[in-house]
Structures are given as C-alpha cells and as structure tokens.
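Run log, item B.
One chain of 255 residues. Sequence copied directly from the ordering sheet:
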Amino acid sequence: MTPFPISVSRVNAYLACPLKYRFQYVDQIPPPWRAAALSFGSSIHAAVEWFHNARLEGKTPTAEEVIVIFDADWYAQNLEPLVFSEKDSKEALAEKGRAMLRVYVAESSAKLPKFIEQRFEVDLVDPSTGEAFDVRLRGIIDLVEEDNLLVDLKTAARTLEDGGLERHLQLSTYALAFYLMYRTLPRLRLDMLLKTKMPRLERHETTRTVEDLGWTARLIAGVGKAIEAGHFFPNPSWRCTECEYFAPCQSWRET
C-alpha cells in the first residue's frame, strides 16, 4: 500500500474545518475568491525568498530591490479576486508590505542561511516509541540557519498569544521531519513580521523534546486516518463568515 501523503498545511486545514478541507482538497471546488491576507503573506514570502537567494549568490540586495519583487508579486496576486478586510485595501497593504520589508532587510543577520525553502519528504514515525505509520510527511522549511536552526516566517496583525510558540504545529512538524532525517533535535525560531502601525520583526526561539515530536507524529497520523476514512464535518466558528466555501457549506447543510 502506498503511504498516505500529507503536509502540515493540510493538517492545519483539516483541524480548522474538516468540511472545508473536503471542499478544497477532495472535491477540489475552485474558490470564488481568496482572502487578501493570504495573498499578502505569499507576496511577502516571495520577496524574502528572493532576498536570501540573492545573498547566497554573493549579492547585497537593498530593501528597495526587495520591494520591487514584492510589488510585482502583489500585482500578480491582485489579478485574481481578493476579499479585503474592512481596514485593508490593495494600496494600504502595498504600503504596509513595503514598510515591513524595509524592517526585515534592516534587521536581517549578516550571516548567510544554509538553506532556503528546503523541501523534505519522510516516512512518518513516532520517535518516542518507534511506531511507524502508513503516512508520508511532506513540506518545505522556510529557512535553515547555522547550528541546525529552523526558521518559519509568518506575517501577522498582532504578536504571539500566550502558549502559541509551544503549540505552533508548523515548527513542531519542521522539528519532527528534521529529527527523522538526521536523528538530531534542531533549534527552532518563529519570525513574526507584524502588520502593526509601526511594523516590527519579532523573533521567538524555542525547542521540542522527543516526546513533543511523538505527540506531533500521532496527531498527524490521526488526521491522515480521518481523511482516508472520509470523516468530513463542519467546525462552526468565527471563520465561517470569512470562508470562501461558505456557499457550498450552506448547500451541504440543506441536504
């Protein structure tokens, strides 16, 4: 039997709302629009990735050069229908993104990263017990720095909530994949580029134990089993009114 392939983004999508997961990944219903915040984050990531790749090529890119990449990607993102929050607009987010990238470039370490957008694909195993699951874990690590420091970059409107660093599934999955590949516990860092009035960059370092990684492995395996078994049900929350699958969900409720 071929191992069930899954990524942490799909795990997070299922945990947020299993029915939305079905609409998006199983039924593959084309969304009528996309949340502007998601597209904005993609444009920031594209610019940051270009920045680090240019550095690895021996260049010293300026903030304004990075902003050119952001502007081009943001223009492309807006060719498709986007839905903005009441406080945002295409122009306002463009200005905010430029300010955020100036902060990011100014506060970047002089040390070069080892890897950028490092892909991984590993068979899922609980490292605390050795139990193997019929799951293939895939993903991309944003940044790998010296001394096995794995970095995830996020854009956010506010700072990290209490306990958010310890519960951060993306970092836990990075650490799990790294441990399964190299049998070494990595260091972890969450870089938060904040869309506050005065943009700022927060860096939060953390670690995971082997027991933590075992819990993460079992969670991912459980989600994989639920998806394979076809367990798709709604998870009503404040997200519903902002969901691009609101109409299919309403139709599902009426059947």
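Observations after the first pass:
- The first helix runs from residue 8 to 16.
- The chain has a mean pLDDT of 95.
Flagged for discussion on Thursday.
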